[in-house]
Automatic annotation (TrEMBL):
Source organism: Paralabilibaculum antarcticum
Chain ranges passing through the membrane: 72-91
Key words, A-Z: Membrane, Transmembrane, Transmembrane helix
Protein's name in the database: Tetratricopeptide repeat protein
Domain of life: Bacteria
């Protein structure tokens, strides 16, 4: 076919018209020789030993000064950051402790409010002569705050009055009064309760 011949003619034409390209990576014979000559022709400056020591000393001093500058700059940058972190942590800790203290004071005020209300209600039942309801309310108050003197005294008082008037719970009343005298000492109101029991 004539197709094959025309393709062959195009290939020959392209080869003939191609320009010569120089390759950067391929070096000719002359280039290697000149590079070799230049390498051999380098001249190095020689320095006497004492001058060389002075140069080394100067280089060391400059390096030490540079290191000192870097340390100072690092200190100037790092110290304020550390101080800021310290005060931030301290502030957060103080906030947390304040919250804990506020919570505790709130809880203690709630406890005080509950015990005050229970004491008032038990006093109401005591005045009306309903010792059973007064004892129930004082028992609740005792469960909330067992170490409170006023609750323990009111409880002992109810038991003593119930013993004196109705003859109920005299052993419990005697045990309570004696326990309070041992714990709180010879208070006048406790001695008055004891004398009431002794009259019975």
């Amino acid at each position: 076919m004539s197709f094959g011949g025309s393709v062959q003619a195009m290939i020959v034409s392209i080869k003939n018209n191609a320009r010569n390209r120089t390759n950067v990576f391929k070096k000719g014979k002359n280039e290697n020789e000149t590079a070799h000559i230049h390498k051999n022709s380098l001249q190095f400056k020689t320095v006497p030993a004492d001058e060389l020591e002075i140069i080394k000393k100067n280089i060391r001093e400059k390096a030490q000064k540079e290191n000192k500058k870097r340390r100072i700059i690092a200190g100037i940058i790092i110290i304020p950051i550390l101080v800021g972190i310290f005060f931030t942590v301290r502030y957060k800790i103080s906030q947390y402790t304040n919250k804990v203290e506020d919570r505790r004071s709130y809880e203690s005020s709630v406890v005080d409010d509950k015990t005050d209300r229970l004491l008032k209600d038990s006093n109401y039942w005591l005045k009306n002569g309903n010792y059973l309801n007064a004892k129930k309310l004082l028992y609740k108050a005792y469960q909330i705050n067992p170490g409170d003197y006023h609750i323990n005294y009111a409880n002992a008082n109810v038991y003593v009055l119930d013993c004196v008037e109705n003859g109920v719970g005299c052993k419990s009343a005697d045990r309570m009064v004696n326990g309070m005298i041992e714990k709180y000492g010879n208070e006048d109101e406790l001695l008055a309760l004891k004398s009431l029991l002794e009259q019975k």
